[in-house]
Amino acid sequence: MLVLGLTGGIATGKSTVAAILSSPPYSLPLIDADKIAREVVLPDTQGYAKIVAHFAPNIPDLLLPPDEYGKRGLNRPVLGRYIFGNETERKVLNAIIHPEVRKAIFRKLVYHWLVSRADIVVLDIPLLFEAKFDLFCGVTMVVACTPDLQRTRLLKRDGHVLTEKDVEQRIASQMSIEEKAQLADVVVWNNGGLDELNTKLAAAIASVRPSRLTKWIEWIPPLGLAMALACFIRRYFSKSGAREKKT
Description:
Helix content: 55-70%
Strand order of the largest sheet: 2-3-1-4-5
Number of helices: 11
Largest sheet: 5 strands, parallel
Radius of gyration: 19 Å
Number of strands: 5
């Protein structure tokens, strides 16, 4: 089973690509890290308890009013504004959420390997490289577009709530598309229309789809584990080298 790590920048078209890959004719299983990140901080979870314990003293309106069951969820916009630009607190939040997300992703990957037996599973993660989730992927794919087009799309999509300055700050707060493209195995440039994107995506998936021999080898446990370990080691050293050159 190939784990395809999918990422991109804000307004580059990653969500569009994820929707295409999870629909016919591909119908690939999709693991949405954003959705999981919301699930692991719901009331009564360990993530929720840790966030409340750390952030509640400094954020009076951290919790929403009680719902019909008496549960008080996190006020995500308020928490987001608090950590925006605060590197120390952002790292604390990530240190709470990322381990819980990793465990949930691992459980879903095991399910797809043992039950759905899909040849490709798409791992949709905005912070694929930043959180080092790429180390667990067989192939990484970045959906990219030019910086000017990225700004134009973001203003068109969220211009009713974001100013041009807000847009620049949102883009600047992320790893640049150029950096992600250099770290990725496959880059799908989304500078045109939907038809062009579909054509490029079809070629990209065809280039990474596992062969029949690879599929059979993976179902022999010792060989499958050896392949996974070799992939992890190769990616760890190659990506570590790429990151060191950037710093």
